[in-house]
């Protein structure tokens, strides 16, 4: 087991993909599932995967919602939001 695998093994993650088009169902989210696969192969647990539009307030609401409560993930990763705005 490599050092990086040892450090994330057993941790709970949430993945947020920030994408206007994916949030509207116009484009398949590929980055979220790629991250999930990477993490799970290293022993991490991905409890939630969400897609939100590239809007600051929606991103903020989603992050706060994930952090609030007893089932909050230990780590939240975001991906996307790379288009022209």
Entry keywords:
85 residues; alpha/beta; Molybdenum Cofactor Biosythetic Enzyme, Chain A; 3-stranded parallel β-sheet; 4 helices; 3 strands; 39% helix; globular
How does this structure look, described?
The chain is built from four helices and three strands; from the N terminus they run αβααβαβ. The radius of gyration is 14 Å and the shape is globular. With 85 residues, it is α/β, with parallel strands linked by helices. It has helices at residues 3-8, 20-23, 31-41, 56-67, and strands spanning 12-18, 45-52, 75-80. Helices cover 39% and strands 25% of the residues. A three-stranded parallel beta sheet has the order 2-1-3, with helices on both faces. It has a single domain (3-80), classed as MoaB/Mog-like domain (Molybdenum Cofactor Biosythetic Enzyme, Chain A), CATH 3.40.980.
